[in-house]
User: Fold these one by one.
Assistant:
Number 1:
Amino acid sequence: MSTSPLAPRGVLYHWAEVLPLTGQTPRITLGEGDTPLVRSAALEGQCGLDELWFKLESCNPTGSFKDRGMVVAVAKAMESGARAIMCASTGNTSASAAAYAARCGLECYVLVPGGRVAAGKMAQAIAYGSRIIEIDGNFDDALNAARELTAKHPVALVNSVNPYRIQGQKTAAYEICETLGDAPGMLAIPVGNAGNITAYWKGFSECAEKGLSTLHPRMLGFQAAGAAPLVSGIPVLEPNTVATAIRIGNPASWSGAIGARDESGGSIEAVTDEEILEAYRLLAAKEGLFVEPASAASVAGLLKLARAGRTRGGRAVAILTGNGLKDPDTATAQYTPDITRSAATVEGVERALGW
Amino acid sequence: MSTSPLAPRGVLYHWAEVLPLTGQTPRITLGEGDTPLVRSAALEGQCGLDELWFKLESCNPTGSFKDRGMVVAVAKAMESGARAIMCASTGNTSASAAAYAARCGLECYVLVPGGRVAAGKMAQAIAYGSRIIEIDGNFDDALNAARELTAKHPVALVNSVNPYRIQGQKTAAYEICETLGDAPGMLAIPVGNAGNITAYWKGFSECAEKGLSTLHPRMLGFQAAGAAPLVSGIPVLEPNTVATAIRIGNPASWSGAIGARDESGGSIEAVTDEEILEAYRLLAAKEGLFVEPASAASVAGLLKLARAGRTRGGRAVAILTGNGLKDPDTATAQYTPDITRSAATVEGVERALGW
């Protein structure tokens, strides 16, 4: 499609050789992947680390990490002849699925838990023209229904139970190794449905095998305390947390997450909503990074480990999974805005500022 | 700061040699710049073009193109010893200024026109911890006050009247030339305060001088019909448009915009709110690109030129300046969501979908 001398941007171009593509896989892209890896300006010491880096997955085209895997899943669905895709979603997956479906002329069906999806994400799914079914139930109920429906109808399931999603998401680990010149010693990551921690571990393992890195990072997964089945060891029937993106009681990639934890010598722990919101505010106020609450779970976890004296230097990467603009209601609820009204005069503004 | 083998991401690293930096300029970054350039999947032909590419400035860390210039303006302010910055803003500038100020430990004062800033942008400025003054007046009144206040007090003005803003924003033109291997024949861009069209023209002119490109693109600027002073030739006292980011009646870079237009053999024209919103919906539904209304002005303009038979093939780049999530209210108002409620059963969802 392109006549340009450089390879186009996008996961299917940049990472073709590590993905299960064929000559028939359409090379679609919305410019996903190749996201910034930014060094911490303020929280590094507070987290007890020598180096802390943030992977800004919020800079993906639909504002979350989901785009990396979705582009592979949708391309493979098209290769197989699908004309429609379906997903269950707490919001980010549906935004991403709807965007790629719109771009590729596919129908997109989205099953969301009733009343539990952040407003911005719903606006995205609506704008991209997906058909939305609001389920009387939680995410896990929606995913069960989507599994059964796609088994019965000629519609491709694009949740992270679709292995192509994991394949695409692993590319973020490759990018981190490429940027840092090696894998970090630790990877801090929010855990909901557990596809992403599974994907990163797969990516880091492949990088080590291929000689692109020498280290296997310890995988530090963090769940919200109200939705922490991987911590307690049993599914949570009524998951509840302000971090809607990880409000999941029975993770589809349960065994992948446990494998990542155990093979890497890492841990999966819980952080409270208060800890998540503290990290959410700190990231914006001290680092200039406005993320969705679920993203802040990775930093909340590092701060918690540091307070317990359990971090001892080294280099960590924290995954910031989604953009703060996706959840305007939490932002509004978290702040008492410092807004003063003034006439449009120098004197008025000086008075308003107390100058 | 970094121990990694590769140069860090960011405008001050990637484009240092074309920016007015010194050894004393702090190399700050939020990972801005290096945004995707994505080929049109659907609207290319409808726009009467051989090739249409979208520059996704929405993928910058605060979700708009402002980050490119703000990183330079804030770094130079720090170099000069400033401990505080100020801007007038329709929203994107304040979000960007507040983010870099938070990251760098500076005070940030934001003057916004009362009741005319999109909700997401205000949420950003609040989360990043800026002090917000809501002015009884429009953007132009706020900018006048900011100019006078920063002349009187030791606070750096970071609006695009600050020449470092234009310097940073020009880097997007360099990136386009780098990705395409040459400048495009046409550049379609929304025009509000006119700093960005000025910056792109500067960037393309420099690329041609340096031998990085052979073409000078025709600069096609588009203003909202209710805020089109560069089209009418006289300032608009009460600018009004759904595209809040370009709701500006007396552009600070007036002469820069006219220079870009005339030197490039281009044009600056008006598009109505209806045309802007049509393009806004088409970008989401046909390209999978959810942008803020002002961004859609560039595509609305191309569609308008095509309908008048004024596009005749060639390669154009349209600048998509900001993320759709910044203006959730417009998104909500533009769509009748296709949402059906259902029990969490296969039969329920089948019924809901009419399967």
Note: Residues 1-5 of chain B have pLDDT under 50 and may be disordered.
Number 2:
Amino acid sequence: MSTRPLFVVAGIGNGSGTGAAAARLFAQKGYRVALIARNADSLNRLAGEINSAGGEAAGFPISDYSYGATLSVFDNIAAHKWSSAGSSSLRVALWNAGSGVWKPFLDVTEKDVETSLQTNVTAAFAFSRGAVLAFKQNDIDERGKRGTLLFTGATAAIRGNVTTSAFAAGKFGLRALSQSLAKEFGKENIHVTHAIIDGGILTDRSSSYRDEAWINNPDLRLDANSIAKSYLYLVEQDRSAWTWELDLRPAHEKW
Amino acid sequence: MSTRPLFVVAGIGNGSGTGAAAARLFAQKGYRVALIARNADSLNRLAGEINSAGGEAAGFPISDYSYGATLSVFDNIAAHKWSSAGSSSLRVALWNAGSGVWKPFLDVTEKDVETSLQTNVTAAFAFSRGAVLAFKQNDIDERGKRGTLLFTGATAAIRGNVTTSAFAAGKFGLRALSQSLAKEFGKENIHVTHAIIDGGILTDRSSSYRDEAWINNPDLRLDANSIAKSYLYLVEQDRSAWTWELDLRPAHEKW
Amino acid sequence: MSTRPLFVVAGIGNGSGTGAAAARLFAQKGYRVALIARNADSLNRLAGEINSAGGEAAGFPISDYSYGATLSVFDNIAAHKWSSAGSSSLRVALWNAGSGVWKPFLDVTEKDVETSLQTNVTAAFAFSRGAVLAFKQNDIDERGKRGTLLFTGATAAIRGNVTTSAFAAGKFGLRALSQSLAKEFGKENIHVTHAIIDGGILTDRSSSYRDEAWINNPDLRLDANSIAKSYLYLVEQDRSAWTWELDLRPAHEKW
Amino acid sequence: MSTRPLFVVAGIGNGSGTGAAAARLFAQKGYRVALIARNADSLNRLAGEINSAGGEAAGFPISDYSYGATLSVFDNIAAHKWSSAGSSSLRVALWNAGSGVWKPFLDVTEKDVETSLQTNVTAAFAFSRGAVLAFKQNDIDERGKRGTLLFTGATAAIRGNVTTSAFAAGKFGLRALSQSLAKEFGKENIHVTHAIIDGGILTDRSSSYRDEAWINNPDLRLDANSIAKSYLYLVEQDRSAWTWELDLRPAHEKW
């Protein structure tokens, strides 16, 4: 009985963004997909959609992005009975959860700081722990990997700005984690990578407040499916040439 | 009755490191000195030493580097009755507190992550808030400043490494905060600056585990007094040429 | 009569490295391939190999990487009569030429500096001019591009070190060029990208002085074919998510 | 008969910018000053001004910033007979020469590229060689130094932009040189440092095309004297805490 590769993603919002696009793409590529988010309705809707399309997905809602909740969901995933036959091997984990806050510094509250750090950093430590522990149990595959751990970063991961103190503190911290892990676990054939998303992504939410010119011009905004393709590319890199970090931005983005 | 400039520093360890050296130097330059740390004995000893040397210092112990405790100490400082006559004007604030943790990733606990983020980032947000609010009440001085906010950074602020995931996450986050503040408050003539300390500092603690060759060779380790001088230089920069970031390392450091 | 896409690459060494691997890969993908290098024998051998394998390649030897010679080769390429029918559309240009020099600073000669700057920077300006002028004549393709300009960078593009003053000066300069071009021509749907190759590549040359352990361990050195695949990926990115820069290193590389 | 410290600076423009301000400041601090530039009139005027003010300066015009001319000027300086008694010890060298060009890429000529690379990089290699060879003959002074080599950098040293391809290529290259030298010669107690000037400097030239609001507002533009003070500070750093790089910008600069 064969083993099927498993893709775990945390952070799928309402199902129209990067996490969901990646889930759909990896499902098409034959991965079982474990979806983690706080919103159970979105999870179930996306899982249903993927399953209807011939994939195999399951939702794992969590109450919040606390360290404990984030880590323990890996136990739930490991215990899950998939409908198809065969065991699962966690091969790709995508940390796409995050918490943005854009405010002048004096408007930033203690709660804002804590939420940004907990969601963007602390929970990412827990997620990384769950993923790395699972990867270490894997054999090295034909590409020279035990697993790939992907992080969704942002411009705020490399540049603090006038309204991003709390958000940038979290995203810088996440980038530090990703670099530390890349250096420590590359030696064990675990690939850790960080994508700097430098621009707005077309989602249900951004569509609700952006103008038509932006929505309709593919040179101006990121397509979540294109980001997902870059994640797939990173996963498919073989052991001789791994990327830790790349940036992604629309063709016409000013930067 | 004249106003005296006030220097606030958080993080003085046992009184042999950067925070203490800066406190001594600014006291010599005529600043009143408010010392913040968790260890009341160290605080009192250092305050006593400065006062004996003709300076004016007071200790403000805090129970921990929680957001609330860190912010409220500014109220205590504002309420403090200094022995000399005249009111105080907070002109320089140095965030030198920190929490280091060096461990392989899988040994890093939830508590390690939280401690690093709380001390290195959350408390720095509170400290910055206290400082900025005080600075905004100041006139612009002859150098073109309302105040200077100094952050002690580290190599781990710009590079994650195999045993620094939790520490680097905190120090990256602090650097993000400092850059955001520099951009937002430069326009209000508040100078925010970040020093990357890239090497070991000679302190009571480092002396206890380093060898004689290191201790006795001034080309190999940082002197806390030299760091303090660089902080004084940054404070004395006039409005036309402010530094956000500089690095500091011993002459013979390999980097 | 259809138009065939053309791939131009400068810098193919003796045919065992990155430039040659990219030429082979793009030929397989249906591109005509124009090979530029100083060594006519290597060019002809590689062109012959690609043609024998069913591709279509031609060599364009140049006397040196002067500005003039590098730029004028684009005229030669435009004037070339390909054996198959149909006109060519230059769609991908790879600047892979370079000149490395590793010496203590006081051993670096005027000639070393000039050679590094001419080959790594000045010639790259000429190559970029030739490529951009050609791209501007193209329609925007289905991926939203007029063309892709790829630069092979190195660790020395982001870090000067004790024996790399002349090499790093050239590679930093090349990186500056690539970033400037990416920002200026993204708006015209020309994609410019820079790869930081952070490790040794397995080539005929490196095999001649490296030990067996290194040569035989795919975790330790870059495979030129894997770099070529990353270039193909970058070319295939659609307009919504373009990468300017990524790093590539072997799984076990210490960095 | 005592030895007097010598300060060498290349690039003094018309005497109203950074190089000239540094020359004045180091003259006031007791350094003999050797002025290098292409414009003999400016050199003589500045030398005369410094000498009238009680300093000791001499001009060393060079025909152009070729490698040979730049290097040989160190021989001329060594052979110079100063009016006061005592030999000279070259202790501080400032590379402030540069060549800016701001043009859309397709307007950049071969000559523009070569001029930028020659002046910003090649000549800086020659200047560094002259300075390092002189420093190596010095004893280590009380601050732990044989000498300090200062480089004036720019925003274009860390960021390429739409009209800066040629300028940024030069300034990136210069930065690479400075970092390589800092790492190689720190071990010999030679301090190499690089200042990123991030904003406009008030000079005769900038005054001719800027508006009154900019000229008269010290929060908006750099004062060359303030940059000079930062250079003096860097020179005075002791061996335990050397800065390789700092940025300098006006208080209100948007960045």
Note: The longest helix of chain A spans residues 110-135.
